Amino acid sequence: MSDLTSKNKSLMHRIYQEMWNGGDPALAAEIFSRPEGVENFVSQFLFAFPDLQHTIAAIIEEGDQVAVRFSAQGTHAGQWMDIPATGRPIHYTGVTLARIKDDRIIEHYTWWDRAGLMEQIGA
Questions:
Q1: Any idea what the CATH number is for the domain that residue 86 is in?
Q2: How far apart are CA 29 and CA 48, in angstroms?
Q3: Could you give the angle at the alpha carbon of 35 between the alpha carbons of 86 and 123, nearest 5°?
Q4: Count of domains in the chain?
Q5: Looking at the DSSP assignment, which residues form a beta bridge with residue 96?
Q6: Gap between the Cα atoms of 6 and 3, Å rounded
Q7: Is the pLDDT of residue 4 over 90?
Q8: Which of 31, 38, 76, 109 is the most exposed place for a label (fewest CB within 10 A)?
Q9: Which of 76, 78, 73 is CA-nearest to residue 47?
């Protein structure tokens, strides 16, 4: 399998294309070794930003680790935390670093511009 079509990179693509862009938080059960928190977060986030679309800007694999640089855009159409829907467009960027074993993500960290998002929705 070539580097560009590795199983680990494909798994990371599923997060952004199928789970986020496809609106399928339950897919976390297939992707993550501990999916509960992920599925809950994605469900709540997609409730607040139902048209959210992620774009992968770069993906790098090194051994059992994959790094993804992404951007996302959508509309604040539902309550997020204690902030009622504003109808405002949002855009943010972030990076996820994941460690993969046996075709599942066993450890992951995501850094994204939460402060910028909060500012965009008037928080």
A1: 3.10.450.50
A2: 22
A3: 20
A4: 1
A5: 68, 110
A6: 5
A7: no
A8: 109
A9: 78
